[in-house]
Amino acid sequence: MQRGSDRLSVHRDDEMKHELQGLLRSGRPTRTEEWQDPEPTADDDPEVAGGPVVPGGSTASLSAVRLELARLLGRQVFPADAHKLARALRRVYAPETVVEAVERLPRTARFTTVQQLAEAVVSSGREENA
């Protein structure tokens, strides 16, 4: 294959890849200047918006839980029971807290919309916290 405008040959590319392999696998930053490394978060830093929503948590509002469930599930799984919804959440690698909140719902309950599911998850979380 013609490499065209590359400055280095195929052999030099492989050499450089081999030289960098140790640095990339080391688990340490590869920058030489310390000031370029990202600063770790502090204990008193504010929580980042858009993080995972924990159903039943004190700050989880109905709209936030509904948005998270809709983002993860989509429309194709409805209508479904809690067991089927939990399996669908596991297939998309949903956060464990979301899956556990859905698994705690009654087995006999059937949900036709994300709104119904979100309401049940939020209300069951409030009952457990009370």
Description:
- The chain is mostly helical and 130 residues long.
- 48% of the residues lie in helices and 3% in strands.
- The chain is built from five helices and two strands; from the N terminus they run H-H-E-H-H-E-H.
- The chain has helices at residues 10-25, 62-73, 82-91, 96-103, 114-129; strands spanning 80-81, 110-111.
- The protein has a two-stranded antiparallel ribbon.
- Helix 2 packs across helix 5 (114-129) and helix 3 packs antiparallel against helix 4 (96-103).
- The N and C termini lie far apart (68 Å).
- The model has no long low-confidence stretch (mean pLDDT 76).
Number of strands: 2
Query: Which percent band covers the strand fraction?
Result: under 5%
Instruction: Compute the separation of the termini in Å.
Output: 68 Å
> Please, how many helices?
5
- Classify the helix fraction into a percent range: 40-55%
Shape: elongated
Task: Please summarize the sheet with the most strands.
Answer: 2 strands, antiparallel
Structural class per helix/strand content? mainly alpha
What sequence of helices (H) and strands (E) makes up the elements? HHEHHEH
Poorly predicted runs of 5 or more residues: none
From the alpha carbons, calculate the radius of gyration and give it in angstroms: 24 Å
Widest sheet: strand order?
A: 1-2
Instruction: Provide mean pLDDT, rounded.
Output: 76
